[in-house]
Amino acid sequence: MTLHGNLLGPEPTLLPVDPAAAELDRGVAPEEVAAAHPTSSLAWAVLAERALENALTITAYAYARTGYHRGLDQLRRSGWKGFGPVPWSHEPNRGFLRALATLQRAAALIGETDEAERCLAFLADSDPAAPAALGLG
């Protein structure tokens, strides 16, 4: 028996470093980064955020949904069982959380209320600090 684990739930899921992050930080266009790293939630989240900033709601929704699903794949590969913490404080988790937050915003804008509410609940369940950190709280 270990004494360092959370006795009330699963350990937090911590995604590995996303190689796309360094390219985005260097100013490589997110379209190029997503094409080079199609499994990167972060690249899709950046595309989604930019589309939403430009009032391209359906495009943002599609990009965000892609980033969300790529993130679910990454979470599962990292041991996530469909529930449990995905902390915002762990930088590599932020691509997934940003995609989820942008999916929430885009869903709300197109009147997909149930989806928007599910996304917000999932975000808060992943990390109670995430909605506020992403401007949703």
Could you explain how this protein is built, in words?
The protein is mainly α and 137 residues long. Helix content is 60%, strand content 0%. The protein has seven helices and no strands. The protein is globular, with a radius of gyration of 15 Å. The N and C termini lie far apart (38 Å). 39% of the residues are buried.
Distance between the termini: 38 Å
Main sheet overview? none
Characterize the overall form: globular
In terms of per-residue confidence, which ranges show pLDDT below 50 for 5 or more consecutive residues? Answer: none
Helix percentage range: 55-70%
Radius of gyration (CA) equals 15 Å
Write a compact overview of the structure shown.
With 137 residues, this protein is mainly alpha-helical. The chain is 60% helix and 0% strand. Helix 2 (30-36) packs antiparallel against helix 3, helix 3 runs antiparallel to helix 4 (57-77) and helix 4 (57-77) packs antiparallel against helix 5 (94-109).
What is this structure's SSE topology?
Elements (H helix, E strand, L loop, with lengths): L18 H7 L4 H7 L4 H13 L3 H21 L16 H16 L3 H14 L3 H4 L4
Helix pairs in contact: 2-3, 3-4, 3-5, 4-5, 5-6
Highlighted features:
mainly alpha; 137 residues; single chain; 7 helices
